UniProtKB/TrEMBL annotation:
This is MFS transporter. It comes from the Bacteria. Residues 16-27 have a biased composition (Low complexity). Its main location: membrane. Keywords: Cell membrane, Membrane, Transmembrane, Transmembrane helix, Transport. SUPFAM superfamilies: MFS general substrate transporter. Coiled coil: none annotated. The chain crosses the membrane at residues 52-72, 78-101, 113-131, 137-157, 178-200, 212-233, 265-289, 301-320, 332-350, 356-375, 396-418, 424-444. It holds the Pfam family MFS_1.
Amino acid sequence: MNRTQTHGGTGASLTGPAPSGEPSGPAVNESLNTAEMRRILSSSFIGSAIEYYDFILYATAASLVFGHVFFADLGAGFALFASFATLAVGYVARPLGGVVFGHFGDKLGRKKMLVLSMLIMGVGTTLIGVLPTTAQIGIAAPIALVLLRICQGIAVGGEWGGAALMALEHAPKAKRGFATSFASAGGPAGAIMATLVVSAVSALTGENFLTWGWRIPFLLSAVLIAVGLVIRLKVSETPSFQRLEAVNDKRRMPILEVLRDHPRAVVLALLAAMSFYACQGLFTVWGVSLAVENGVDRSGVLNWKAAGAIVTLLVTFWAARMSDRIGRNRMLLIGGVVGVVLAYPLIALLNNGTLWGFAVAIVVGNGVVQGLLYGPIGAFVAEQFPTSVRYTGASLSYQGASTLGAGFSPMIATGLVLAAGGSIGLVAAFFAAVMVAGMVAVRLTKETSKIDLG
């Protein structure tokens, strides 16, 4: 079979027989409207939503609960900083999970790694729900919390790559962006579930929320994970990996191949993805904490956070579909420009101490800006790498961006406010700078929406 293929965002074309590691084979489904594709897309969406429910549930608890439960002796400001530090630990672990799961996903298959990542996530989250407090067991409590957060980070680090590739590698070329967005959309869907559950439990338990009510959403994870595993076990391995497996050298090391042959693609994809992760960290974590500290009603904040996630979900699907029509790069640049223009107004609204200000900021910042970036980013990142190292390369880039963009941005924002004596100007400048860095990376990358994946 003859074809032209571009990888790594370099513009290099390979014409002729399929190169080593990209064996030829039958085409993937030509439509998304088949029983198999519906099963694959629903599995990617529901599985990701459940895993991100667990992961983002921790972020919500870090904003509202853990400073009081595990770090109360540090004082309000430093307790919040310490709580955000444990949040960041999970993001630091995500690239490790991406590399480990990517390695075995490129050697053993996407499906097996998705099942394993879900098991690890479920066990870690459920154990957080039964973890004793610092008042009960002393320093062992925050240490255990950090270890369980690391387990969450490793699990979600392997989740996105597998879910995205299951959709991407089954989908026809003209609809890869939209198909991959089902895995990405699991993030805001999980955020909606986590936020609404915490809001409902907070309202029902009232004053008991900080003593035992916060544990209920974590324990609920056990039920959700069981549902997700049933769904995941029914999907088939991707055609791209099945063709690769026939000629795969089991001795190869995907991470070494990525670092040796595709370092430029890793860096550019990471910078491009970091922009939407900064939206997530600043608006849904730091912004939530800031609003509650400024006296805004906690339940109102959580409900509007859920509303913002709904908008993110809708805009993500729209932007992904548009990226199949006008290109991934153009959609990412549009989102970046909107983010830069609105950086200061949105951060100022987060800080104005009113529910309406928070509502506008979360709906526009988290919903519109993040959605415009989130829609095309999954396919954009995955398309930078060939099939033989796609799980590893895409996961390393995407999860590295999550560490820098979402994991550290709440801590950075908190530190910038402290350094500026309470002013939010530096936070707005930081947000705009991340947007600009992402746009520069996209401009240095070739358009990938029309390449053949193999």
